[in-house]
Amino acid sequence: MTSPTNPFAAMMEQAQEMAKAVNPALETFAADGFEKLIPTMPADWMEGMFGKGLSEDGLDAKTKLLLTLAGLTCQGGQAEVPFKLAVRHAHVAGATAQEISETIAMMGMFAGLPASTRASKLAQDVLADSTKEETGE
Known about the structure:
Layout: H1 7-22, H2 43-50, H3 61-74, H4 80-92, H5 97-111, H6 113-135
Helix pairs in contact: 3-4, 3-5, 4-6, 5-6
């Protein structure tokens, strides 16, 4: 008697074979830096679509993006691209490096040290890139 194949493993194997057939280069594709290809929304657009533009008495876009960072930190920083995008957009919406850092540190109490350490490293990378862009380096 043979053991049944794990359906998820079989599906992943089939997807990998299809990707190789369509484009052999996909076999070695890495998504590092993919978030840099996604444009940053202007601060006034974020405010209109996510912040006070939706509800005058509600939270502003910067606060909502810091809350998003808190949630992504609690997930362990697993979703690297969305996390980096949230840091970049929070910064553009007016969040300082200190506010971003404090948001992540606060979540360390709930998510644990490994999650907050990973989130801090990701945020530092994004903020370093933002500083380079702002100074023209």
